[in-house]
Amino acid sequence: MTGTLLRFLMPFPMRGYVHVTRLELEDMKRRAEKQNQLLLLYTRIKRHREMIGPPADVDDFLADLSAVYYRNAVRCMRQEVVEQKTRSLLSAEGIPSVLMRGNAIARDIYCDQYCRVSSDVDILIKEEDLFRADYVLSQNGYIRDDGLPLKFWVNRIHHAVYHYPGANDFLELHWNFCIPSFFRLSSADIWADTVRVEKNSYALSPTMNVIQLLLHHYMHAFREPRILTDIIWALHKYEDSIDWKRLGEEIKRIGLLKTAMITLGQISSICGELAESEASLSLFRKTVEGLGRRTPRFLNSFFRMAPEKEHAFQDPRDKLVSRLALDGAGTICHSFLKSLLPMPEDIRQLYADRRRWMLPLNYSRFIAWRLREWKG
Questions:
Q1: Are residues 209 and 258 in the same domain?
Q2: Beta 18-19 vs 52-53: how paired, if at all?
Q3: Is residue 348 assigned to a domain?
Q4: Residue 307: is its pLDDT beyond 80?
Q5: 351 and 308, same domain (yes or no)
Q6: Which end of the chain has a smaller Cβ tally under 10 Å, C or N?
Q7: Which tens digits make up the pLDDT trace of 311-350?
Q8: Confidence of residue 1 (pLDDT cuts 50, 70, 90)
Q9: Are residues 241 and 320 in the same domain?
Q10: What residue numbers bound the domain in which 371 lies?
Q11: 286: closest CA among 306, 309, 268?
């Protein structure tokens, strides 16, 4: 993500006239599409149309992509129906919710709800409301994406996936941003940092939204340029509303030091001088560096952002190495042990078998499954 493409994808003001050839436009289109940022490129060029030339080539480029943009607009409007229907069902039962990621990021951070492609709808609820929310959704035709007991997942992951009735749309119902044992962030911590929008409808504060994006970046093993771009846009949008001192304190308390430092390294590598000159990136750098810790060179090298390189989603090696990006040796060790050795009650829930003599056998089955998964 360098040169002219970087200028277009970043949120910073355009400085001076930009001349691009047809070949350069096609190359940017190819790279942006690969990074799932094609529509952001389209909206940015369209917004700064008078500063980019030659006119004929740029107009042709925009005309070619307009149909793609409007197809995504239709998709987003369909997802908005899912958002509204789901939140209305939850609200009717007194269950508060927060719309996050996806279209919420497009509206709030990018100020263009159709410039970002999202494969699902993400809604956050309180952990204490999870089983009630699951009952409400199941009674209204939503179908869980897996057959594993919800009680097995609640202490192990951070969301459940549902199929919206009568459509191919997916809903992710979150009770946290991350695997609970990896970071010191509870559902209560998150909800203490929300603001009420309307009855039973809330939004994340700017500080919590940045934390959520950092955790999202970690959960995707630092491999998605789009999430890194989300973080840069959020820092820029919230530059004057973030309490930077508190953000640093929360990063340290939650256990996000290594995550923040890897992210900072990626921002510096792709943005170059912008990381030093732009106020929001400079504030983020000072906040992270002020926490007084360095990330091991191995992690910085392993997770170096290379947009041109192909990375498989949820690659087993990436998932394993990302465990080393957790803060503290104890947390790292616990992350591996918990993956291999869940609590006995979790195993009983998973295999729906409460016979004591079957517990060792079911543990063996579970460990074999995890090892196969890690091997890919």
A1: yes
A2: parallel
A3: yes
A4: no
A5: no
A6: C
A7: 666 788 898 899 999 999 999 998 888 777 888 888 888 8
A8: very low
A9: yes
A10: 341-376
A11: 268
Both 246 and 349 in one domain: the answer is no
Give the chain's largest Cα–Cα span: 75
| 244 and 355 share one domain | no
Residue 211 located in a structural domain: yes
Q: In this structure, are 251 and 280 located in the same domain?
A: yes
> Tell me, what's the pLDDT at 345?
81
Within a 13 Å sphere around the CA of 338, how many CA atoms are in the beta-carbon half? 16
- The candidate with the shortest Cα–Cα distance to 174, out of 166, 162, 163, is 162
For residue 87, what pLDDT band results from cuts at 50, 70 and 90?
very high
Partner residues linked to 124 by β-bridges: 98, 174
Distance of alpha carbon 262 from alpha carbon 318, whole angstroms: 14
- How many other C-beta atoms lie within 10 A of the C-beta of residue 118? 18
How far, in Å, CA of 267 to CA of 262, rounded? Answer: 9
**Spatial distance between the Cα atoms of 38 and 31, rounded to a whole number of angstroms:** 8
Are residues 347 and 254 located together in one domain of the fold?
Answer: no
pLDDT over 70, % of the chain: 97
DSSP calls for 135-161: HHHHHTT-EESS-S-HHHHTTT-SEEE
Tell whether 247 is covered by a domain: yes
What distance in Å separates the CA atoms of residue 229 and residue 232, rounded to the nearest whole number?
Answer: 5
How many structural domains compose the chain?
Answer: 2
